[in-house]
Amino acid sequence: MEIAEIAAVPDEATVAALAALWERCGLTRPWNDPTADIRFAAAGPASTVLIGRVAGTVAASVMVGHDGHRGAVYYVAVDPAHGRKGHGRAIMAAAESWLAARGVPKLNLMVRPENAAVAAFYRALGYETEERLVLARRL
Ligand SMILES: CC(C)(COP(=O)(O)OP(=O)(O)OC[C@H]1O[C@@H](n2cnc3c(N)ncnc32)[C@H](O)[C@@H]1OP(=O)(O)O)[C@@H](O)C(=O)NCCC(=O)NCCS
C-alpha cells in the first residue's frame, strides 16, 4: 500500500473515493458531511487526510490533526476487502509520524465501549486505556 497526504485543495474524485470508503466502513453519520470534513482537514495547517492506495485505488484512510498539544485521528478506515493485511497498522503509523514530525508528543483517541474489535485493533498497536471522563458540548 502506498500512503500519501491529500492535496490542500483535493480533486472531486479523491473526495468521492474517500466518502465512499467511509460509507463502506460504516463511518458516516447523517449529521456529518464527510466531503466538508475532508476539505476542512485538507485546507488547514494543523490537519490532513492520509490516503492509502492499493493498485491505485483508495483502500485506507486516516484524518489526523492536532491542537498544538495533542493529536487526534478520525475516519480510520480500511476497505473490508483489504482487511487484516496490516493496512490499518500502516495508516496509523503514518498518522503518528505526521504528528511526531510536528512535535506533537501524544495521540488521544476515543472508541465507543461496545466497539470491541476496534479497541482490540488499537491495543494491538500499543494504545492503552486511560481512565478519563470525556465531557463534550455541542457548539
Ligand atoms: C479497524 C480497522 C481500521 C483495522 O484495519 P485492518 O487493516 O484490518 O487492521 P490490521 O490488519 O492493521 O490489524 C492490526 C492488528 O489489529 C488487531 N485487529 C485488527 N482488526 C481486529 C478485529 N476485528 N478484532 C480483533 N483484533 C483486530 C489484530 O491484532 C491485528 O493484527 P493481526 O492481523 O496480525 O492479528 C478496520 O477494521 C476498519 O476500517 N474498520 C471499520 C472502521 C472503523 O471502525 N474504524 C475505527 C474508527 S475509530
TrEMBL record:
Q: What InterPro entries does its record include?
A: Acyl_CoA_acyltransferase, Bact_Acetyltransf, GNAT_dom
Protein's UniProt keywords contain Cytoplasm: no
Could you tell me which residue ranges the N-acetyltransferase domain spans?
1-139
- Pfam families the UniProt entry points to: Acetyltransf_1
Entry keyword annotation includes Acyltransferase: yes
Taxonomy, top ranks, is: Bacteria, Pseudomonadati, Pseudomonadota, Alphaproteobacteria, Hyphomicrobiales
Protein name as annotated:
GNAT family acetyltransferase
Q: What class of enzyme is it?
A: transferase
Read off the CDD domains from this record.
NAT_SF
Task: State its Enzyme Commission number(s).
Answer: 2.3.1.-
GO MF annotation list: acyltransferase activity, transferring groups other than amino-acyl groups
Keyword terms: Acyltransferase, Transferase
- Superkingdom as given in the UniProt entry: Bacteria
